[in-house]
Amino acid sequence: MSRNTTSILIIYTGGTIGMIKNPDTGALESFNFDHLLNHVPELKEFKVAIDAITFNPPIDSSDMEPAMWSRIVTIIDSNYDKYDGFVILHGTDTMSFTASALSFMLEDLMKPVILTGSQLPIGALRTDGKENLITAIEIAASKHPDGTPVVPEVCVFFNDKLMRGNRTTKINSESFGAFGSNNYPLLATAGTDIQFFPNNIKRYLPGLKLKAHHEYNSNIIIFSLFPGIQKEVVEKLLGASELKGVIFRTFGAGNAPQKKWLIDALSKATAEGKIIINITQCAGGSVHMERYETGLQLLQAGVISGKDSTVEAALTKLMYLLGTGLPVEEIRRLMSQDIAGEITL
Predict the structure, then answer these.
(1) Percent helix, percent strand, percent coil in the chain, to nearest 5
(2) Backbone conformation region of residue 340, classed left if phi is above 0, alpha if psi is from -120 to 50, else beta
(3) If you write DSSP's letter for every residue of 30-74 in order, what string do you get?
(4) What is the per-residue pLDDT across 227-271, written as a single tens digit (0 to 9) for each?
(5) What is the CATH number of domain 6-212?
(6) CATH class of the domain defined by 220-335
(7) Out of 6, 13, 16, 116, which one is annotated catalytic?
(8) Residue 16 annotated to the active site
């Protein structure tokens, strides 16, 4: 490729976008990514050099694990100087988890990493995969007049919307509008033109070098409150010796029932060095534990506010920080601080 050619690396991990229907059984089966050009011939018209790396075998997103996030990080890190941007094709079920994890594992990222996929296979008549893929590539290749990337961060592009990756959540299993970003505005919208919103996009900082992280600790649980929750179950859950952290999904602005046994169990767990992060069960909004007595009691028990983080961002951030080997108190501090655009300060 010439020195002036923009180059994009597509990383196909699996998912609906890379499947075709078996004519005999009607079941969806993965197909070789090289066949993509047959379904999206428009890619040949791009004034962009496109290469592809395919997971073999492709992975259903429900099987995605931290080790595979590390694999994606390795691919990006080893190809970082060769390409101007990266497009990751991924199943929708865990796309927000992967996007969130990559935002922490790719420290000082200054190139676009755009995750996309589809609700219908790329070969289907009404597929959303074709537009998602084409536009994701166009966004990953977009540059300012000075040659710097327009979107130097990890994003999810879906249904004409570009969102910060660690702010997304899958909100619909059937609609083409599968993802939402309730606590952070869109980075761009795609219509007849792609309209970027620069004030919402991470600022490009020249001179930064990518720091790729591979360590993680997944001895974490997501624990949701509900009316009628039982003491014995909670105590056994929080008392597990292997447990390192808890994403604690509370009511409203971070509230929990005023039950002494619950506060005692939380206090004991934090005293043992377990890190408990308070995330609201609401689709949007932030945790404010100081607002009501039902939240203040959690602060006094050592529970940390995750503020307006998504569950996906809080979980992957805690896995990442636990993997660094930092002291518990430092991890607790960082969990309520913004380190990759995941929290609104």
Answers:
(1) 30, 20, 45
(2) alpha
(3) E--GGGHHHH-GGGGG-SEEEEEEE-SS---GGG--HHHHHHHHH
(4) 999 999 999 999 999 999 999 999 998 889 899 999 999 999 999
(5) 3.40.50.1170
(6) alpha beta
(7) 16
(8) yes
